[in-house]
Amino acid sequence: MRETTAPYEMRPLTRAEIDIAVSWAAREGWNPGAEDAACFAAQDPEGFWGGFLDGEMVACISVVRYGAAFAFLGFYIVDPAHRGQGYGYALWQRALGQAGHRTVGLDGVVDQQENYRRSGFDLAWRNIRFGGVPAMRPRASDDFTLTWLDGLSAQVAALDARVFPAPRPAFWQAWLGGPGHVSVAAHAEDGEMQGFGTLRRCAHGAKIGPLLATSRAAALAVLAGVLKDWPEGEEIFLDVPDPNGAGVQLARDLGLSPVFETARMYRGHQPELALDLIYGVTSFELG
Questions:
Q1: What is the per-residue pLDDT for 254?
Q2: Are residues 95 and 170 both part of a single domain?
Q3: Residue of 215, 239, 211, 214 whose CA lies nearest to 226
């Protein structure tokens, strides 16, 4: 780290400072949602860290903890004027230490994979962001009944448990009922939930995440619900695990094109997740 007369302070961010971190993410082109900061802070208020010089934030990172066994790393950003001086890496080490012995996941930019490997992370798969104006409006099959979600339910938790390695009730309560979030579930005739998803407006267009479904038909039903009132001609984005071929094909059938990709990596035991259910990742920042 470059020597400076100002001491470098590293500490958890306040709620207002988390808003600054999200604004930095927008500046970097990550296109966060309007309510992301509030929803993310609900899961782990002390999971966001900043590095400060003379009281000014120059770096940020999140290591959000989910129970005793899992954490997810995101928001690793250094202010452009302070890059290359060691501030980011020092904060990385300090915040990652908060994870303790937990397995840690991240979605990193592909060209940083080697740096992440040096910190003990191994590649699991690629996630591909598809974006664009939908070429067609999905229609729900009569085999499904759509319901609105405004908070966590037992069926949401059960489906999420198949694609995420730890319970996250505080997050779901904030995410599904967030202002401006449109959250829909698709149920079979017997009442069993077959999928759910959330659309949220972002700086550009809207992201649909999660989009979890037991089949393409269920995914289309959820999409029909969340896009019901979405304006024609406006962009949407879906982040799809590359190993889920059906999800990739659905994104392409919607007329969306690859615009970005990440490397999903883990430090520690790689969790066994049902990737075939993930037609849209919830968030590159929190998993």
A1: 97
A2: no
A3: 211
259 closest CA partner among 241, 238, 243, 245: 238
Say yes or no to pLDDT of 141 above 90: no
Cβ neighbour number for residue 260 with a 10 Å cutoff: 17
Q: Phi/psi of residue 42, each to 5°? A: -65, -30
Whether the bond into 7 is cis, omega within 30 of 0: no
Dump pLDDT digits (tens) for 32-73: 998 898 898 899 989 999 999 999 999 999 999 999 999 999
Q: Which of 267, 284, 282, 263 lies closest to 109, judged by CA?
A: 263
- Residue in this structure with the two tokens 């798969």, named with its chain if needed: 125
* Tens digits of residue pLDDT in 236-259: 999 999 999 999 999 999 999 999
pLDDT at 110: 85
Provide the domain limits for residue 244.
129-280
Question: Which residue is associated with the tokens 């035991």?
Answer: 269
Residue 223 lies in a domain: yes
Does the pTM surpass 0.90? The reply is yes
Asked if 130 contacts 240 with a C-beta cutoff of 8 angstroms, the reply is: yes
The verdict on 13 and 30 lying in the same domain is yes
- The answer to whether the CB of 28 falls within 8 A of the CB of 204 is no
- What SS3 string covers 199-231? EEEECCCEEEEEEEECCHHHHHHHHHHHCCCCC
The total number of structural domains that make up the chain: 2
Mean pLDDT on 148-167? 96
For 175, other C-beta atoms within 10 Å of its C-beta total 29
The mean predicted confidence, pLDDT, of the chain is: 94
C-alpha distances in angstroms, 80 versus 3, 160, 257, 266, 280?
A: 18, 37, 29, 27, 31
Judgement on whether residues 103 and 152 belong to the same structural domain of the protein: no
Q: Is residue 287 part of a domain?
A: no
